[in-house]
Design goal:
203 residues, alpha+beta, Muramoyl-pentapeptide Carboxypeptidase, domain 2, 2 domains, three-stranded antiparallel β-sheet, 5 strands, globular
Amino acid sequence: MARQVRALARACVTLAMVAGGWFAGVGSTAWAHHMDGWVHDHSSSVIPARPDGLAEIEDTYGPVCGNNANDGRSYWPSQNANGAGYVYYHAYIAKNVGGNIRNHVNADHRDSAVRYLVGGYNCRYIAGSTSWSLHAWGAAIDTNSSTNPMGQDFWNGRGTDGKNYGTYLPDVWRGAYPGHKFFWGLNWDSKPDPMHFQFALGY
């Protein structure tokens, strides 16, 4: 009888260990973050100095529509009306955009906050002018442009799933201290541009 009790006790301990391990495995799988190992990098090699004024922009990004203006890229959900795609930009901001900002959205499970169009490098003038756009240097990215056109004085944060994400995306682009340091076009006094985020000032 004592032998049977000990055998039953051993069986119960084994079952508990197996069950515990199984549940632990399920728990760790269920709660494991899909971006384990990823961290923000706010070092100066990833978030470099932000140029201020045309002279610094030209010194930093090189010639307008130059060879490095679209050397960086990252894959964005709802990049266009047909779905996901690559967004291209200057190599100078590549680690910040691809490593910090895009991965931040992914890590937060907020891909649905992204609404088309997301666009970066574009060799063009500022609309209605003969001055080069910062997009021509690959120094600006438009996000959720279909619902946030130039001239609109607020940010429409409704995502592709219809949910209102508030200012989640602009907050990621700007970032809390020490931040990702993109300037938000909504803050222009003359003509707000809520879709527009640029890594430069004074232009």
